Amino acid sequence: MWLYRLSSPKLFYHISGRVIPWLFLASITILVIGLFWGLLIAPPDARQGDSFRIIYIHVPSSFLALAGYYFMAGAGAVGLVWRTKISFWFMKSAASIGASMTFIALFTGAIWGRPSWGTYWVWDARVTSMLILLFLYLGVMAMIRAFDNKELGQKNGAILALIGTVNVPIIYKSVDWWHTLHQPATLKLTSDSSIHIDMLQPLLVMIVGFYLFYALTICLFLRAEILQHEQATSWVKDLCVRRLRKSG
Amino acid sequence: MGMQFSTFYEIIDMGGHGVFVWTAVSVSLLIFLTLIVLPVAEHSRILKNIELTMEFEAQSLRNVDAEK
Predict the structure, then answer these.
(1) How far apart are CA A160 and CA A163, in angstroms?
(2) What is the ipTM of this complex?
(3) Of A128, A157, A243, B68, which has the fewest Cβ atoms less than 10 A away?
(4) Cα B51 to Cα B25: distance, rounded to the nearest angstrom
(5) Tell me, what's the pLDDT at A179?
(6) A54, pLDDT greater than 80
(7) Which residues of A touch B31 (CB under 8 A)?
(8) Of A222, A58, A237, nearest in space to B51 by CA
(9) Do A127 and A62 contact (CB within 8 A), yes or no?
(10) Mean predicted lDDT score pLDDT of chain A
(11) To the nearest whole angstrom, how far is the Cα of A76 from the nearest Cα of chain B?
């Protein structure tokens, strides 16, 4: 029920306005702690030396790139079924942020590949499927903006996002299904992780920090989106009148 | 568990891997910064636009009244 009420643009706008300062404070603090811990305090890797420290950005950004795709496609599906406007705006926001996360994952992976694989880029299953994910994100972003009829663009964007979800489990499983240069998963839900506890703790901190930052940016993007679409409504006008009076 | 590095140079160098680690970190932070600045700037641009339109409408209403 609360989720349904939150789908009112006005209510989301007001609540997110209250939450954003806290999200900002929490995500920045946790990211700073995680970076400091991971980059300077965690022990170096026995085989890779200090270059492994890139993991503290590479793994969390990959997590968000994949989870963010489900958030985006899920919002698109909700928009298609229940026709809630805010779902499509969420989808649009998630597309921009997800594309950024995917780019960070690919970029840090390429940089990490140089000292550990001897090359910036390989066309192996994991790397290639991640590149496809980036193109899917960019495709959804372009599709949403490609039509004069905004509603049509949003619907087509949602359909493309839903079709693209096939790629996500392929990315997850790519290191098991094919012989790849990419190392197997560091964190597993179902069995012990292949990483020492001293290295794992800052990684978990970074993942929490990335999720909070993701929530923060979703709120920021979505608020701009709401304002853009609702500027003719009375509540936005009231908001502006109050702001104008405050500033004199 | 303490710091792995004892001097500032060691932090920058990271056993020869510093250039990779710090490039990855700084590019990512730059993108993070953009993810905050872009929507905030867009938000205030839209707000300002709406307010300008409202002031313009109020002004023209007053002009109409004055002409009467």
Answers:
(1) 5
(2) 0.91
(3) B68
(4) 40
(5) 76
(6) yes
(7) 100, 103-104
(8) A237
(9) no
(10) 91
(11) 21
Burial A185-218 (b: 16+ CB within 10 A, else e): beeeeeeeeebeeebebbbebbbbbbbbbbbbbb
pLDDT at A189 over 70: no
Q: Does the CB of A200 have a partner CB in chain B at under 8 Å? A: no
User: DSSP readout, B1-68?
Assistant: ---S-SSHHHHHHGGGTHHHHHHHHHHHHHHHHHHHHHHHHHHHHHHHHHHHHHHHHHHHHHHHHHH-
Token couple for B64: 């109409």
Across A106-128, average pLDDT:
91
pLDDT surpassing 60 at residue A64:
yes
Query: Tokens 């496609």 identify what position?
Result: A73
Pairwise CB contact (< 8 Å): B17 & A50: yes
Structure tokens at B40: 């905030």
Q: Do B31 and A54 touch (CB under 8 A)?
A: no
- Is B57 an interface residue toward A (CB < 8 Å)? no
Closest CA to A87 of A95, A98, A76: A76
Entry pTM: 0.92
Residue A186's pLDDT is 79
Please name the residue that has the structure tokens 């609702």. Answer: A230
Find, in chain B, the residue whose alpha carbon is nearest to that of A243. B51
Domains of chain B, residue spans: 31-68
Place of tokens 């009420």: A5
Which backbone phi and psi does A174 adopt, to 5 degrees?
-55, -35
* Tokens matching residue A74: 């899920």
Cα separation, A75 vs A15, in Å, equals 19
Contacts of B38 (CB under 8 A, 6+ apart): none
Q: Which residues of B touch A118 (CB under 8 A)?
A: none
B3 chain-A contacts, CB cut-off 8 A:
40-41
CA-based nearest distance B35→chain A, Å: 7
Q: Which two tokens stand for residue A133?
A: 């994910």
